[in-house]
Design brief:
Elements: H1 2-32, E1 34-36, H2 37-44, H3 48-60, E2 65-67, E3 70-72, H4 83-87, H5 91-102, E4 110-113, H6 117-126, E5 132-136, H7 139-145, E6 151-155, E7 159-161, E8 166-168, H8 170-175, E9 181-186, E10 190-192, E11 196-199, H9 202-213, E12 215-221, E13 233-236, E14 243-247, H10 252-260, E15 264-268
Parallel strand pairs: 4-5, 4-9, 5-6, 9-12, 12-14, 14-15
Antiparallel strand pairs: 1-3, 2-3, 7-8, 10-11, 11-13
Length: 270
Amino acid sequence: MAADGSQGQVETRRAMFAAERRQRILEVMRANGAASLRDLAEAVQSSEVTVRRDLRVLEADGLLNRHHGGATLPGALSREPTYAQKAHVAAAEKAAIGELAASLVEDGDAIVIGAGTTTQVFAQHLARHTELAVVTNSLLVAQALAAAPRIEVVLTGGTLRGSIHALVGSAAERSVAGLRVRRAFISGNGLTPERGVSTPNMQVASIDRALAAAAEEIVVLADHTKIGLDTMVQTVPTDEIDHLVTDDAAPREVLDELTNRAVRLHVARM
């Protein structure tokens, strides 16, 4: 009987630990809308194998949706995180991605840059160039380049979308309609081999498509939390993406599939 009682206590403790772990997972998810398996494992100080089991349970309860390498909250397909919500997610990875992406830019280039926290960091690394022409709809990108005397910065017109500090709408799209530049550097909220880059907002998707259409090559900047994640509106299909700059925590199977679809990978090592 004593042995049975001891075993029962162990099982009770395990159940309590699992409940606490899953509650913490949900707290992380509610703060960010999406999270990678690695980030969740770090948050709850457990193995990815354990967290994967937790995600299966939480998905069965209808509390989240699993995807390649992580999970999203129900409704995340149409939820657009604000700049403040995104700024601290995968900050170190975004810094490494921004630095690596800057190596794809040469002095004298003309480029377009879309909105996003990762493209903001990328722009900060461009200040070392002696001469560039940059067109952007992002107030944050423009601000990052404002002190670089040899970089010409052109802001699109348009309507301010304050939550992401970016200009959108028909005026923004018309302002880039006649452009031809070497490369477009864009981000997004999700990237899958099946649909390419996606975002929850139709206006944001439209201006990103217009920026991409102005370029000879399209470079996508996406940290591991976005790889394998799909959101509501397709921005750029996979067969139009020339380069992906990401970090080494991105799900390997997704990266392999993107490579099979002729996307050139640039992986920032952490």
